[in-house]
Design brief:
Length: about 350
């Protein structure tokens, strides 16, 4: 899930931010266009309801860096590329409605399973199951190299936002534009050492649970792992009326044999309770001062996400120095792309044209 430091910065909707009621956005006719500031025409993405699609038509595998990466692909093979990045406890199905919307706009859409999820596997049993932030970001660079993608729009939420932010900050030449739910999520290890207000800490119960052997055992349990993940879904998306089948499609990704180790390491590493690897030290040093993101960016806040109170993005606005827009989606929870696929896809199209 997202960096806990952002939770403590609740702000009101201010000048320059767009408050987007989802129903209104999805009611726009498919043939309409919206005029962006500066006079250019931007296509309006056709409205679809969450759950319109349940599967991807194309699932592939490719060796990339340390991994054999499983990914979904949609759209024309030679279209401009969008890479959509999921979070925890989610998988590629967070974009099952987003991908066809973007494909219809002519994009080649790549949706990879992150390390430890779904059909993504480590090439070597000897590789440390590391989930520190720079390792996951380098997975995406390796994936782009393997697929011969020089530059792409990156769009993500939760772990995916953090990963996209890092790639955009450290390798801006590889990123055409960025869509980042909850804004700037690069983990500040030093800041993580300080407590938040108790109400904020309460929301992060699972992070501290995973810091214990008891929590690790629960994540390794075939019985308790899906129950734990389902509980998170229920609590962080209070207005999303998903059914059991929707959760079960994603829960299959949690059966990856590396999933428990990756999840537990991620949260322990963030709290300074688990070591990373020396091979990533130089990247973590570059991330420590919270580097700027210079590429065109649209940030999204979900009003009903308990981790990031929706607002004008002012708590992280100074990190984005390029062309920029911020939007708040009313009535939407943490799994924003699956709950509001039209709004997410529209953000991608708009970011690409900033």
């Amino acid at each position: 899930m997202i960096n806990r430091r952002t939770f403590s910065k609740a702000v009101g909707l201010g000048t320059g931010a767009a408050a987007v009621p989802l129903a209104g956005l999805q009611a726009v006719p498919a043939s309409a266009t919206s005029r962006k500031e500066g006079g250019g025409q931007v296509p309006t993405v056709p409205a679809v309801a969450s759950g319109t699609h349940t599967s991807f038509s194309r699932l592939k595998q490719v060796r990339a860096g340390l991994l054999d990466v499983g990914y979904a692909e949609a759209g024309p093979a030679h279209g401009p590329v969008v890479i959509c990045l999921h979070g925890w406890p989610y998988d590629i199905h967070s974009f099952v409605d987003v991908a066809p919307l973007l494909a219809e706009q002519g994009y080649r859409v790549i949706v990879p399973y992150l390390r430890g999820h779904g059909t993504t596997r480590f090439l070597s049993s000897r590789t440390f199951r590391n989930a520190q932030q720079s390792a996951i970001a380098l997975d995406i660079i390796a994936l782009m190299d393997a697929l011969k993608i020089e530059k792409a729009v990156l769009a993500g939420f939760d772990w995916g936002s953090r990963t996209a932010d890092i790639v955009a900050a450290l390798w801006p030449e590889r990123v055409k534009a960025l869509v980042s739910v909850s804004g700037y999520l690069v983990t500040d290890i030093e800041a993580q050492k300080s407590p938040l207000a108790p109400a904020a800490e309460y929301t992060w119960w699972y992070q501290y649970y995973f810091a214990t052997e008891r929590g690790s055992k629960a994540m390794h349990s075939d019985e308790y792992r899906p129950q734990l993940c389902r509980l998170v879904w229920d609590t962080v998306s209070p207005t999303w009326g998903f059914d059991d089948a929707t959760f079960q499609r994603t829960a299959l990704a949690f059966e990856n044999p590396d999933y428990p180790a990756i999840v537990v390491h991620n949260y322990r590493w963030r709290l300074g309770l688990a070591d990373g690897e020396r091979r990533y030290d130089r990247f973590e040093k570059q991330l420590a001062p919270r580097p700027f993101v210079t590429v065109p960016t649209v940030t999204l806040d979900a009003e009903r996400d308990p981790f990031t109170p929706a607002g004008d993005g002012s708590s992280y606005r100074d990190r984005f120095t390029g062309a920029y827009e911020h939007r708040t989606l009313k009535g939407i929870g943490h799994n924003l792309p699956q709950e509001a696929p039209t709004a997410f896809a529209q953000a991608v199209v708009d970011a690409d044209r900033l």
